[in-house]
């Protein structure tokens, strides 16, 4: 072999060997785990466009972990969170889920926000028999055996909200949503519910994710003059939509609007004066008056700053950690199959009130609340239901 | 469709024209003069928006009584900051790429990623709230049932002002003359004694400053978060490419056509289909006029 | 056989790189191998970009479209196989009553293969031929492709019932009865893919070393002169780009095999521009550089996001700046510099 090509051989081979060795080196710190510790996976987007929503959920989950550790841990073991970044990219979610289950061998993962990220990781959890706690409201139509859904599905949000709106002079509805699965599925359910209640849908508009020009849609709304607007516009578009509604004279005092995707965190970005007077349907509001909630909110503010607001997904993430702990203690084991079996009917006194995991369908009994946004960014709770049974496959 | 809705739709089209024009003016100037594709243009708009956010907060804390006037200060400050930043960018990165437009495209794309992540790290991944000046709240109602939002009227007025200023700059000042000379023939312009390096730097800075104004003004109608820039960039490019490079007139006309088509399609079908239809029309027209609507004959 | 193609040094490098890639699974835990497969699926795309951009000067920011064609084609086939005889799950909860017409032919594997290999040509060639005939310049073409990839993404997301919408298509189990979901199966697929990649790399190297390659370089550097010499440059450019699109499509299909999903994010503008950087990093005129760079960047992405999630975008942005400003010839150019080999000049435009 000549001198120059040997040099090249060394250069190239050493690079590729280093490329292989480094993942191995990265493995080392993770493989070791003390005997009195148990790892809990947290899989959320910490970068990218969805970090908007998910970063706050991680904060709440971490706080729950700290609280549980301070009280002695789970089955005597301290929880060590393993945080992985899904980077708002669904294939990355699948990749990180695999890493958490196969490399870190975590007994449970709390994660995902968008339905797309959840769908991407489901096959990974199925193949590796993992356990996922999903803390975000979603459209239902799913009941995966490896997942426990700690937030409301469509009947606990959309159907309940439609029924309430119909009672509040809701004869005509206008649906506006971002163009992807959650709004489309919710609108399908909402439409069927409206028909059942004798109301009509006078408009159904979708804007691409990230869209910011709503003037045409708003003009259509003005032409249709609906009693209620049901909004499933998400993300940055939300801000544009609300601002433009207000500028067009359709603010909260003149037009009734309800959303199932706007919590205190979103109002922070939208601007309190743009959202005041609009309604939201959630399981949790920061303004709930209960000793558990007051303690919870105070703890969040103490840990993360007094300007922090707390929204539904944050609270459901917090609940997820506790629901896992309770199921583990009931099963007296970290084994996934045992924990899932033990989860049935586990109850937790959450900040939103009592929640109970359903006997069979992996969702949670919870109360449905409707709130009206105040000028200070908090919600006045105008309606609170009884504990509502989850039903991810409603008959429409 | 009632008459009121017709007027409001027309107004929507005009206001969207203003928005597109404001966004694209800076890009068209830079692209036309220097052949530089600045994929970080969106992030410069975001910079203008974040500067506005900071100015608003300063007013809220230090001059709470005059908080309503903040926007009048924020816009020039945003212009200044992005102008200076653009100058810095040109000097440090862009000037190495003249006559290599495809490389500029990639390099400025990289720049946009870095800027996005910087905003995320400095301001956080969430949206930042920017208060609306109360005198821009609400709408005027020239006829019954026709509401024209005040902030959009403000945007249209501002755009006209900016467009007029840019026109005067390019056609009535010495600097503008130099820019036009360089656009037509860079080599000869240099031999005549024009300092092309300096003109390039100022022009890029101007383009950035215009982006800053656009970003500052959009805080009134949209959201400000690290990803804001990416939302606007492709639309802006379509407008510029469609209008024909090196032509302010072309950019204006292109903004108008695209805005009207978009708002009309949106009214007739959904926003998603509107976007797709618009793209197809643009592609077809570009096929027949590949250099855009107004393509001046320049010697390259 | 072109002289360049038989050059010993290239084949030595070829054996080194593919040899190392071949041995890699033995030095890694089983669950990492599908990741390697994912990284290398982008190598196919990078190969195509080396051909069309590095050698022919056509910058397409829409390779995601063709990546998507191959990926969605295979995904549809795999989904049908996994769901049959029922409808795919996402159709059920989008209230689609029966299989859309467009899905029916994907029940056949041969059709799917034809789709992956032939459809990119059918889509790309006529369109780009007409555009190149109009002498649309590089910059306009790039922006146009960028806009088209964005448009396609919007269309896919909007057609939830037909394409899975923003969620994409996930959850496959087998290909023609052979398991594709487990790590062992993916390790077997890895070796097969490596063979295919080696073949494609050799093919592209053959093309660029031949007389055809010389014409490409000439078109990249002075297209008008080539035209004056009697060549139909529009035809040649369109054909080259079509080959590049087929390679992207194969890459998409591989991606689906190794990750078990496809989403519209991979079709869009951001992904398409990222694919360019794979080729640029390796050296836009280096075939083997493309393979190395795709692997290296993919690996770095996973490693960095584990340690520094905030850092990935900084790194990627910096990479773009690096390969355009400092290292226009990429890694291979760097190596050539150290060995003082004359490089194939790769001025883009």
Low-pLDDT residue spans of chain A: 21-31
**How much is the average pLDDT of chain B?**
85
Q: Count of DSSP E strands of chain B?
A: 2
| CATH-derived architecture of the largest domain in chain A | 3-Layer(aba) Sandwich
How does the major sheet of chain A shape up? Answer: 9 strands, mixed
Number of strands of chain A: 14
Outline of chain B: globular
- The DSSP helix count of chain B reads 11
Q: What is the domain tally of chain A?
A: 2
- Strands of the largest sheet of chain B, in order across it? 1-2
Helix and strand arrangement:
The complex is a heterotrimer of chains A (396), B (300) and C (349).
Chain A lengths: L2 H29 L5 E8 L6 H20 L7 E8 L4 H14 L5 E3 L3 H14 L3 E3 L12 E3 L4 H14 L4 E7 L2 H17 L2 E8 L7 H10 L3 E5 L3 H12 L8 E4 L4 H7 L1 H4 L3 E4 L8 H14 L7 H20 L4 H8 L3 E4 L2 E5 L6 E10 L5 E10 L8
Chain B lengths: L2 H32 L6 H22 L7 H23 L8 H23 L15 E5 L2 E4 H23 L1 H11 L1 H6 L4 H23 L9 H16 L4 H21 L2 H18 L12
Antiparallel strand pairs in B: 1-2
Helix pairs in contact in B: 1-5, 1-8, 1-9, 1-10, 2-3, 2-4, 2-8, 2-9, 3-8, 5-6, 6-8, 9-10, 10-11
Chain C lengths: L7 H16 L9 H23 L7 H21 L5 H4 L16 H25 L4 H21 L1 H4 L5 E2 L3 E2 L2 E2 L3 H27 L1 H11 L1 H6 L4 H27 L1 E2 L6 H14 L4 H21 L3 H16 L3 H10 L10
Antiparallel strand pairs in C: 1-4, 2-3
Helix pairs in contact in C: 2-8, 2-9, 2-11, 2-12, 2-13, 3-5, 3-11, 5-11, 8-9, 8-11, 12-13, 12-15
Structure description:
The complex is a heterotrimer of chains A (396), B (300) and C (349). Chain A has 396 residues and is α/β, with parallel strands linked by helices. In chain A, 46% of the residues lie in helices and 21% in strands. Chain A folds into two domains: 37-152 and 290-362, 3-Layer(aba) Sandwich (Rossmann fold); 155-282 and 371-388, Rossmann fold, CATH 3.40.50.2300. In chain A, the strands form two sheets. In chain A, strands 6, 7, 8, 9, 10, 11, 12, 13 and 14 form a nine-stranded mixed beta sheet that branches. In chain A, strand 11 and strand 12 (353-357) form a beta hairpin. In chain A, helix 2 packs parallel to helix 12, helix 5 (154-167) packs across helix 6 and helix 12 (312-331) packs across helix 13. Residues 21-31 of chain A have low confidence and may be disordered. Chain B has one domain (3-288). Helix content of chain B is 73%, strand content 3%. In chain B, helix 2 (41-62) packs antiparallel against helix 3 and helix 9 (228-243) crosses helix 10. Chain B starts with a helix and ends in a 12-residue tail after the last helix. In chain C, strand 2 and strand 3 form a beta hairpin. Chain C has one domain (33-281). Chain C has 15 helices and four strands. Chain C has helices spanning 8-23, 33-55, 63-83, 89-92, 109-133, 138-158, 160-163, 183-209, 211-221, 223-228, 233-259, 269-282, 287-307, 311-326, 330-339, and strands spanning 169-170, 174-175, 178-179, 261-262. Chains A and C meet through helix 1, helix 3, helix 4 and helix 6 of A and helix 1, helix 6, helix 13 and helix 15 of C.
């Amino acid at each position: 072999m000549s001198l120059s090509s040997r040099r090249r051989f060394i250069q190239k081979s050493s690079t590729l060997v280093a490329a292989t060795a480094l993942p191995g080196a990265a493995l080392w710190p993770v493989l070791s785990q003390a005997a009195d510790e148990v790892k809990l996976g947290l899989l959320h987007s910490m970068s990218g466009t969805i970090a908007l929503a998910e970063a706050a959920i991680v904060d709440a989950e971490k706080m729950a972990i700290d609280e549980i550790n301070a009280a002695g841990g789970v089955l005597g073991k301290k929880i060590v969170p393993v945080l992985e970044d899904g980077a708002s990219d669904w294939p990355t979610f699948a990749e990180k889920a695999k890493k958490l289950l196969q490399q870190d061998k975590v007994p449970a993962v709390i994660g995902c926000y968008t339905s797309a990220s959840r769908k991407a990781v489901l096959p990974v959890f199925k193949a590796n028999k993992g356990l996922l706690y999903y803390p975000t409201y979603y459209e239902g139509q799913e009941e995966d055996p490896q997942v426990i859904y700690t937030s409301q599905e469509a009947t606990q949000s959309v159907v309940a909200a439609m029924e309430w709106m119909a009672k509040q002079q809701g004869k005509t509805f206008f649906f506006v949503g971002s163009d992807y699965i959650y709004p489309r599925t919710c609108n399908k359910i909402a439409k069927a519910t409206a028909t059942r209640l004798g109301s009509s849908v006078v408009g159904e508009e979708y804007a691409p994710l990230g869209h910011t020009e709503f003037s045409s849609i708003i003009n259509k709304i003005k032409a249709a003059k609906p009693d209620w607007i049901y909004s499933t516009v998400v993300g940055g578009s939300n801000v544009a939509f609300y601002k433009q509604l207000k500028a067009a004279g359709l603010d909260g005092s003149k037009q009734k609007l309800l959303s199932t995707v706007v919590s205190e965190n979103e109002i922070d970005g939208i601007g309190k004066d743009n959202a005041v007077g609009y309604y939201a349907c959630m399981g949790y509001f920061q303004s709930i008056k209960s000793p558990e909630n007051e303690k919870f909110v105070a703890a969040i503010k103490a840990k993360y700053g007094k300007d922090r607001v707390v929204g539904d997904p944050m609270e459901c993430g917090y609940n997820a950690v506790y629901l896992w702990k309770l199921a583990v203690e009931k099963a007296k084991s970290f084994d996934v199959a045992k924990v899932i079996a033990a989860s049935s009917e586990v109850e937790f006194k959450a900040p939103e009130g009592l929640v109970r995991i359903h006997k069979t369908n992996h969702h949670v009994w919870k109360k449905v609340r409707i709130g009206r946004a105040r000028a200070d960014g908090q919600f006045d709770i105008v309606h609170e239901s009884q504990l509502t049974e989850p039903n991810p496959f409603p008959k429409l | 469709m009632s008459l009121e809705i017709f007027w409001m739709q027309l107004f929507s089209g005009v206001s969207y024209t203003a928005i597109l024009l404001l966004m694209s003016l800076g890009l068209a100037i830079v692209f036309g003069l220097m052949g530089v594709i600045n994929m970080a243009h969106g992030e410069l708009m975001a910079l203008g928006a974040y500067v506005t956010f900071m100015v608003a907060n300063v007013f809220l804390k230090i001059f709470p009584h005059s908080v309503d006037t903040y926007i009048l200060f924020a816009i020039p400050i945003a212009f200044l900051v992005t102008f200076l930043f653009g100058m810095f960018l040109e000097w440090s990165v862009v000037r190495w790429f003249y006559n290599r437009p495809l490389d500029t495209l990639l390099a400025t794309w990289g720049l946009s990623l870095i800027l996005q992540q910087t905003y995320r790290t400095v301001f956080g991944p969430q949206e930042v709230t920017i208060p609306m000046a109360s005198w821009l709240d609400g709408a005027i109602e020239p006829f019954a049932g026709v509401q024209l939002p005040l902030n959009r009227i403000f945007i249209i007025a501002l755009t006209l002002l900016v467009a007029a200023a840019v026109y005067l700059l390019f056609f009535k000042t010495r600097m503008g003359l130099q820019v036009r000379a360089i656009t037509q023939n860079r080599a000869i312009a240099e031999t005549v004694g024009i300092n092309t390096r300096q003109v390039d730097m100022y022009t890029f800075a101007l383009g950035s400053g215009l982006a800053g104004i656009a970003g500052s003004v959009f805080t009134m109608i949209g959201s400000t978060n690290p990803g804001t820039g990416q939302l606007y960039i492709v639309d802006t490019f379509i407008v510029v490419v469609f209008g024909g490079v090196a032509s302010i007139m072309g950019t204006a006309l292109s903004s108008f056509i695209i805005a009207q088509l978009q708002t009309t399609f949106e009214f007739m079908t959904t926003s998603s289909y509107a976007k797709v239809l618009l793209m197809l029309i643009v592609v077809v027209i570009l096929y027949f006029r590949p250099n855009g609507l107004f393509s001046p004959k320049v010697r390259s | 056989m072109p002289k360049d193609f038989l050059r010993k040094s290239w084949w030595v490098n070829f054996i080194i790189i593919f040899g190392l890639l071949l041995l890699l699974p033995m030095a890694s835990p089983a669950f990492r191998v599908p990741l390697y497969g994912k990284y290398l699926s982008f190598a196919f795309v990078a190969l195509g970009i080396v051909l069309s951009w590095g050698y022919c000067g056509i910058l397409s920011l829409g390779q995601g479209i063709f990546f998507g064609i191959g990926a969605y084609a295979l995904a549809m086939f795999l989904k049908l196989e996994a769901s049959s005889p029922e409808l795919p799950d996402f159709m059920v909860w989008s209230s689609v009553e029966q299989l859309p017409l467009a899905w029916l032919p994907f029940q056949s594997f041969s059709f799917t293969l034809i789709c992956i290999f032939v459809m990119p040509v059918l889509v790309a060639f006529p369109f780009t031929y007409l555009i190149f005939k109009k002498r649309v310049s590089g910059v306009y073409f790039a922006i146009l492709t960028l806009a088209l990839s964005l448009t396609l993404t919007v269309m896919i997301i909007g057609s939830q019932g037909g394409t899975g919408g923003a969620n994409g298509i996930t959850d496959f189990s087998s290909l023609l009865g052979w398991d594709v979901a487990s790590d062992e199966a993916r390790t077997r697929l890895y070796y097969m893919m490596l063979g295919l990649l080696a073949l494609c790399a050799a093919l592209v190297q053959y093309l660029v070393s031949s007389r055809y390659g010389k014409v490409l370089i000439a078109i990249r550097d002075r297209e008008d002169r080539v035209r004056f010499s009697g060549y139909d440059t529009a035809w040649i450019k369109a054909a080259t780009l079509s080959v590049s699109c087929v390679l992207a499509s194969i890459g998409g299909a591989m991606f689906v095999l190794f990750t078990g999903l496809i989403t519209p994010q991979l079709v869009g503008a951001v992904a398409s521009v990222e694919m360019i950087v794979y080729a640029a990093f390796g050296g836009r005129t280096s075939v083997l550089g493309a393979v190395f760079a795709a692997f290296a960047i993919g690996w770095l992405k996973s490693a960095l996001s584990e340690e520094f999630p905030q850092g990935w975008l900084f790194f990627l942005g910096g990479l773009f700046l690096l390969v355009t400003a400092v290292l226009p010839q990429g890694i291979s150019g760097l190596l050539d510099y150290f060995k003082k080999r004359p490089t194939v000049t790769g001025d883009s435009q």
